[in-house]
């Protein structure tokens, strides 16, 4: 299509651009013709692809398509699974989930987790940006969405999603199975570390209570009390002596007045 329009394809179809095109195709369930139209829309005057315009065009096309027809995810996902190359049926619910996450799109997963309702434009934009920025394959993104929703009371938290996505991107995960196993290990590691911290705190707490008032402080406090007691006794003696002197002076004065 680019060559037919005399557009330099190498300038448009760079490695990063092709990766994002593939991600948008999977995310929004777009056809080759849809992608071609979005590329043409996002081309600059210099025949370079404005990647943000391209992503927005894909999103707008998806939104327009959603308004025209409802999504039936369950049937679609079963059709894909039935046509898979692996004829062996999964034996566990986890195996079934892994197979489903390998083949459906993130948009399908969001709608499926919403009881068949359409995925919101806000959630789709969030998923789109994370996929494009971190370069996550669709199966890995599916596991990430599923994991974050379960951990966040079915809310797609932007900060949480981006934090885990960057970690998984560095781990170079490529399949849903790899992502799920990685998530399990990280969760187990986090649980063990939290358990160790709680055990350490409960072990240290009695010792800390005993060391709050050290022996040297007790001795210092005892000496201060004794000193205060001695000073009180001395003050009492001084007061008694003073009272005696005052009484003696008063008697002496009275005796002198009687003589006169």
From TrEMBL:
Amino acid composition bias (Basic and acidic residues), ranges on this chain: 219-233
Residues covered by the DnaB/C C-terminal domain: 116-182
Positions of the UniProt region annotated as Disordered: 185-205, 219-238
Pfam families according to UniProt: DnaB_2
Alphabetized InterPro entries for the sequence: DnaB/C_C
Family statement drawn from the similarity comment of this UniProt entry: Belongs to the DnaB/DnaD family.
Protein name per UniProt: DnaD domain protein
């Amino acid at each position: 299509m680019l060559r037919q329009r005399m557009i330099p394809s190498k300038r448009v179809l760079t490695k990063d651009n092709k990766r994002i095109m593939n991600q948008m195709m999977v995310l929004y369930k777009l056809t080759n013709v849809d992608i071609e139209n979005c590329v043409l829309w996002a081309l600059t005057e210099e025949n370079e692809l404005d990647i943000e315009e391209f992503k927005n065009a894909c999103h707008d096309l998806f939104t327009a398509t959603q308004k025209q027809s409802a999504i039936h995810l369950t049937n679609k996902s079963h059709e894909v699974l039935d046509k898979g190359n692996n004829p062996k049926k999964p034996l566990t619910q986890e195996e079934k989930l892994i197979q489903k996450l390998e083949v459906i799109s993130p948009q399908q997963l969001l709608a499926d987790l919403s009881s068949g309702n359409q995925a919101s434009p806000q959630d789709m934009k969030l998923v789109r940006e994370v996929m494009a920025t971190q370069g996550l394959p669709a199966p890995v993104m599916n596991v990430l969405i599923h994991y974050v929703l379960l951990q966040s009371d079915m809310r797609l938290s932007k900060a949480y999603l981006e934090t885990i996505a960057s970690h998984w991107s560095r781990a170079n995960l490529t399949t849903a199975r790899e992502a799920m196993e990685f998530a399990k290990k990280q969760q187990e590691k986090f649980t063990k570390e939290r358990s160790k911290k709680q055990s350490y705190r409960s072990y240290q707490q009695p010792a800390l209570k005993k060391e709050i008032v050290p022996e040297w402080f007790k001795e210092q406090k005892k000496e201060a009390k004794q000193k205060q007691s001695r000073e009180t006794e001395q003050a009492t003696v001084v007061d008694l002596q003073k009272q005696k002197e005052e009484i003696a002076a008063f008697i002496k004065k009275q005796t002198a007045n009687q003589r006169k």
